[in-house]
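We modelled the chain as a single entity of 150 amino acids. Its sequence is:
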Amino acid sequence: MEFVSHDDCPKTLGLHWNTLKDDMYVSIPKIEYHGKLTKRQLVSNIAKVYDVMGWLSPVILFAKSLLQQVWESRVDWDDSVPGNILADWSRWVSELPVLSHRCIPRCMLIPARRSAPDKSMAFLMPLRRDLELLCTFEPSTLTQVSQYLW
């Protein structure tokens, strides 16, 4: 996996586009909190991760599930979240920057079915040594699926 600099790459749809290699990669914002994490900060930080193409859906879904747990615990907007949620959030925030260095081929066509004239699009993004993210799109039905591969 080759790491790419964000410099000199145009941005399109919230993604950086390396025009020389025709690869795209996501831009992950810096997420900060200083010891105390509130519901307000949690909502604000989740909203910072812009993902118009839905490629980060499985990653963002985890953060949104933490937000759901905060709502269920009835924490006020400016009160600290429970410790178990803070631990999961800290781990998520520490792993998030890894995504900003992963290249995504702009277009990789895989035949959906031999009899179908349309082709589905897919890409595979290695996240860690033992984890990859597979995203597929079926143009004929306008469906997108993102899944982790262990």
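As a brief sanity check on the tokenised model: The mean pLDDT is 76. The first strand starts at residue 11 and ends at 12.
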